[in-house]
Amino acid sequence: MTPCRHFFVNIITKIHQCNKSNSKLFILKRKMSLLHDGLPLSGYQFSQLSKRNESSTSGTAQDGKQIITLNQLKKSLAYEMGVDHPYKPFLHKREDLQKYLPKTQEELPKRTMQDSIVEAIIPLSQDLGLQEKYTTFLGSVRTGRLVEDMDIFTVIVARKHIHNPKLPKDVNFPQTLVTVLVDRIEFSEYMPKPNKDIKISGHVTWVSKSTIEVVVWLDQFEDNHWQRITRALFMLAARDPSNTYSTPVNAIEPANEEEKQILIRGDARKVRRLALDSSHISKKVPSAEEQQLLHSIYVKTSDPNDVSMSKRILPPQSVWMSSTKISNAILAQPEDRNLHNTVFGGFIMRHATELSWIAGYMFCRYRPRTRSMGDISFKHPIPINSLIQMHATVVYTKNNFIQTLVFAQVYNPLSGLTQTTNAFHFTLEAPDVVPQVLPQTYYEAMLYIDGKRHFQNLKETQGGFFKSKL
Question: Which of 14, 301, 370, 450 could share a disulfide with 281, CB 3.0–4.6 Å?
Fold first, then answer.
């Protein structure tokens, strides 16, 4: 018997032995699940037939309620958008859907927040493939995966909010929904487990003529009730079928006093976002207090014995900002695309989240926790097959908190040019006091002030959420 044939005979024998034992069969199924289950659905590679034959629910959650999984909602959304084919280099034409677009907001019926409520389950307790996909090397849940899920979920919620009575039932949804910014994602003290179900839920909280604000919650079922993991606020824009110009969305008419108050807070958040944008370091000169801070850093890091003051010295328990920068390069593939054949925003957010964590880990030499991410902007769509470069830098520290900034850039190898498409601000928490990060150049000084402003804004808006426990 040849070695190759002997190998396959052994494999077949082991499979028969496993069939005789439930425990061994379970192990075999688990191994197979790692190959076949839990694969990314961002590519939406399924047929129209399989979509129509799929059940709307997938069983019972750990709390005994009937559930719909997030993957099923993703497939339903893709089906409504007309994406029911394997990947093709060129997106099918959608210009014929232009005639179904609403011309004004007034021709659309007003909606309540209750109309857009969506709830689904990420079935980690039942799907071993998902467990592998969501588990970190420490045995906790990958934050980047959760951020990725929240991004596509907001599109599902926004789609449910938009209702156009004139749209025929057999016509694909004509509008393009894109994430324009992430206002904030806040993580609680609770540490999610990779083998327990996670519930994702949310609804629309505010709209303008063509933009939609969505709140998303993640909870995990443990000790017979749902534990809060995070709360997030996303802003999406409704565009025409070719993603060229903005289109109207349904206005909100509060159904009760609670929805009225949520809408008022949405107006306040709009004002805050405008104020935060105007306070960016590129638009607002450092205040007298900030200038004094930078001067004190310069004096502290200059050699008093050097008359030229060109020699810089690093004080104890400090790190130069330039030494904290790390980068990576990613080649986007078809499975990383969204419904419109550009790179899925959640994919970019996942990689930015994980690169930020690595930068914090290398900086403080502790395993930090991501506590908040926000003021995330999406400037330009990224085509599939793009070479994406990401750069993470620790820009500010306070006690045991680390503020990181991540830039995503698209690099063109032919021209050698880069275009910055995204900016991400993260706040990480370490279990002990971290070194002070210090700038050396004017550019780094501006990053330092911008990071300090973001951290101060979090402290002011979140009360004691970022109060040091040390």
Answer: 450
Boundary of a domain, candidates 276, 299, 317: 276
The CATH number of whichever domain residue 383 belongs to comes to 3.10.129.10
Q: Classify residue 21: in a domain, yes or no.
A: no
Whether residues 271 and 304 share a domain: the answer is no
Domain range enclosing 267: 48-276
List the one residue out of 246, 167, 253, 171 whose CA is nearest residue 204.
253
Cα–Cα nearest to 156, from 100, 242, 81, 57: 81
Strands 225-239 and 387-398: unpaired
Tell me whether residue 55 is in a domain: yes
Number of independent structural domains in the chain? 2
Q: What is the pLDDT of residues 368-407, one digit of tens each?
A: 999 998 878 787 777 777 788 999 999 999 999 999 999 9
- Predicted TM-score (pTM) of the model is 0.77
Q: At 320, is the secondary structure helix, strand, or coil?
A: strand
Residue-wise pLDDT for 278-324, tens only, equals: 767 777 888 899 999 999 999 899 887 777 777 888 999 999 999 99
DSSP 158-187: HHHH---TTS-TTS----EEEEEEEEEEEE
